[in-house]
Design brief:
The protein contains 13 helices and 18 strands. The chain has helices spanning 40-45, 49-66, 87-108, 119-124, 149-157, 216-230, 233-236, 250-255, 257-261, 267-287, 299-305, 324-339, 376-391; strands spanning 10-11, 24-25, 30-37, 74-76, 80-86, 112-118, 130-137, 140-146, 192-193, 199-200, 205-213, 290-291, 294-295, 310-312, 316-322, 343-350, 352-359, 366-372. It is globular, with a radius of gyration of 20 Å.
């Protein structure tokens, strides 16, 4: 497998991703794979945003587990996901995602759009794509993307981009590959979990924020403004170890994870196993018990450190906890920069965060996808699009 992503230098400070010469061009022969949940806004209105998040995360699990190496760049968007895969993995990923789409349809009544766009084709049409590797924690290296190619690929898969109106390109490089002729494989959802209660805001509000700025310097100013308004990271980070509460509700535990990870006749047994594991988790953490090579008292701090509460994929996405007064100050600052033509932004406010997890090693390889409750990033994106339309 091409190793350019694995071999990239590691960035250890989130602020440094907006420095010059940090992002590296993606080489030829890679594909942007986009997964989008159709009708996600309707699902949100029906109170199913946790389901939406879970299905979005499930596609990342299926794609990673289908690859010969799971070390592929990806970003979770709340109601979908985007991944970057080398050409020799594209067939396996497409087959796994077709299987994941079928599982989402039959088990959770959700339909997915899945498509892939060639990085080579994007570059020929003037869209750039670069990537960096941010070490959020020792167990979680987060992909950072720059350029316009991801946004254009997403638009094309949704049927909104320029590529929908273009003549086909060279063989294998049409505007969008939708895997119609690909045989679906049974997806491997190993690592996928949804076992935590909603994470109540410590300070009253959980804010899901998306900002699209005109340059790296503007993002640097935004991060400084967030520090001034919300305080240092530890104060506005939405998930701290003390915030975490395992769920014991059978309706919650039995509805999502077992629906994709267990056969229909065995879902009750899978749910029972999770329920027992939740009790053991509390016991192991409180008593500092070492089982299976895991010092369980360390698990909650590791979990908090491996949350993706902030990320950059051509736009900055963050989930923050704070007070209404802080959010009003942030909105005033953003409105001022928006009026000056420096950025476009979207924001959604709730009282809690939700979390869907990919856990391969309890103290190692894992990522916990964080979003605001009741719409989060999906509704922040709607807000951003409306603001962008009004400005034009």
């Amino acid at each position: 497998m091409p190793s350019f992503y694995s071999d990239l230098p590691v960035i250890t400070s989130f602020e440094d991703i907006f420095a010059d010469n940090v992002l590296h061009p993606v080489p030829d022969g890679w594909w942007i794979v986009v997964v989008d949940i159709e009708g996600s806004t309707d699902h949100i209105r029906q109170g199913r945003y946790r389901d939406v998040n879970f299905v979005g995360a499930s596609t990342i699990a299926a794609a990673r587990n289908a690859c010969s190496s799971p070390d592929i760049p990806f970003v979770f968007g709340g109601d979908g996901a985007t991944l970057l895969v080398p050409e020799h993995e594209l067939g396996r990923v497409g087959a796994a995602l077709k299987g994941a789409a079928e599982a989402a349809r039959t088990s959770l009544d959700m339909r997915l759009r899945v498509g892939a766009v060639s990085v080579d084709r994007m570059r020929e049409e003037g869209h750039s794509l670069s990537v960096a590797r941010f070490q959020a924690s020792p167990g979680y290296h987060q992909a950072v993307f720059g350029g316009s190619a991801l946004a254009e690929a997403e638009a094309r898969v949704k049927g909104q981009g320029a590529g929908q109106r273009m003549a086909p390109g060279p063989p294998g490089q049409d505007a969008v590959i939708r895997f119609e002729g690909t045989h679906a494989t049974t997806p491997d959802f190993t690592g996928l979990e949804c076992r935590w209660k909603r994470i109540e805001s410590r300070r009253g509000e959980t804010v899901s924020l998306i900002v699209e700025a005109g340059g790296l310097r503007e993002y640097q100013q935004l991060l400084r403004a967030l520090d001034r308004i919300y305080g240092p990271e530890a104060e506005h980070r939405p998930v701290l170890p003390s915030d975490l509460r395992p769920s014991f509700g059978l309706r919650h535990l039995g509805r999502l994870e077992p629906s994709l990870r267990a056969r229909p006749g065995m879902r009750w047994l899978y749910t029972l196993r999770i329920w027992v594991q939740q009790f053991l988790l509390i016991l192991f953490v409180r008593r500092d018990i070492h089982v299976g090579g895991v010092a369980w008292k360390r698990y909650l701090p590791v979990l908090s450190a491996t949350t993706d509460f902030r990320k950059y994929d051509g736009v900055l996405r963050m989930v923050l906890t704070g007070t209404p007064e802080q959010r009003e100050r942030l909105e005033a600052w953003l409105a001022e920069r928006h009026e000056a033509g420096k950025l476009v932004w979207g924001l959604h406010v709730s009282d809690s965060a939700i979390m869907t997890c990919l856990v391969y090693e309890r103290l190692g390889d894992q990522v916990h996808f964080v979003d605001g409750s009741n719409g989060g990033y999906a509704m922040a994106a709607v807000d951003l699009k409306a603001r962008k339309k009004n400005r034009s």
